[in-house]
Specification:
- GO terms for molecular function: actin filament binding.
- It comes from Triticum urartu (Red wild einkorn).
- The chain is mainly alpha-helical and about 180 residues long.
- The chain has 2 domains: about 90 residues, Recoverin, domain 1, CATH 1.10.238; about 45 residues, no CATH class.
- The protein is about 50% helix and about 5% strand.
- It has 7 helices and 2 strands.
- The protein has a two-stranded antiparallel sheet.
- The chain is elongated.
Length: about 180
Amino acid sequence: MSGFVGVVVSDPSLQGQFTQVELRSLKAKFVSLKRDSGHVTTKNLPGLMKKLRGLHEVVLEEEIAAFLSESYPDSDQEIEFESFLREYLNLQARVSAKEGSAAAGGGGGAGGRKNSSSFLKSTITTLLHNLNQAEKSSYVAHINTYLGEDPFLKKYLPIDPSGNQLFDLIRDGVLLW
């Protein structure tokens, strides 16, 4: 009888940074790139990394290539899956640090990128879910429509979709995400 093993990563500290769902998704994308290109090098990795959660619309492909060239000066150097995971985590940390310093300094660092609110931080992962304005507006409209007549929520509704009142109500426990 065989059991489900999932994606195994030899480094336990690296394994602990991702859920099995995330590892399967990342492994599938990595294998697909390897199948399409024959092998994965730091030259063809920026295109894949640009599409990953936490990096999409936050960092440019050129910035990813520059970051990878610091660790891998030879752009034709083949990279293995675990090295890819490490570089992904390192890049996320660098992006988070850059966004944090831009926010602390009064901002301009995000340039023309879309504003988003991070609402998910977990101690076992470095991934963030970014909620864009359109998603937030849709969610607020849904809440206002379906919960607007609730006697308990009357004093909190309607929620303004352009502000952060939604997140205040979630933080205070009035609404559960």
